[in-house]
Amino acid sequence: MNQVPCLDWGDARHFDRTQDRPCCLCGRPTPLRSHAGEPVHKVCAEDWNAAQSAEPRRYTVATKARPQQYDVGTWRFHNDGPVTDRRIVVLTPVATDSPPRVVDIDVEPGQRGLFAA
User: Fold this and answer.
1) I need a surface site. Which of 13, 24, 49, 80 has the fewest CB within 10 A?
2) pTM passes above 0.70
3) Are 33 and 25 in contact (CB under 8 A)?
């Protein structure tokens, strides 16, 4: 039995609440949309990905934490999950002024936190 990877389409952009359209693969109505806006059932897209082994694939970016790349589907139907582009995001520290030091004023014990106008 072949195992078909499930697509992660958790983003609301994959759901059209205004109308159902015919699935581009099976023809039955669906509110789901692919990344390109094609009306398609998630299961139909998963089956299409499994049947189209020669189609260009998308892969996760290898990092030190996850050195192995994972197939996230074809370019036509792919996951929302991991980042699949080749751009490397590098976060650089930004110099900011430190917050002012808290100054303790002479307050009688038990009166701390009370302020008078």
Assistant:
1) 13
2) no
3) no
68-90 tens-digit pLDDT: 777 777 777 887 764 544 444 45
SS (H, E, C) the chain: CCCCCCCCCCCHHHECCCCCEECCCCCCEECEECCCCCECCHHHHHHHHHHCCCCCEEECCCCCCCCCCCEEEECCCECCCCCCCCCCCCCCCCCCCCCCCCCCCCCCCCCCCCCCC
Q: Cβ(107)–Cβ(115) under 8 Å?
A: no
Question: Burial level of 60, CB count in 10 A (0-12/13-18/19+)?
Answer: middle
Q: Residue 56: pLDDT above 50?
A: yes
49 vs 25: CA distance, rounded Å: 12
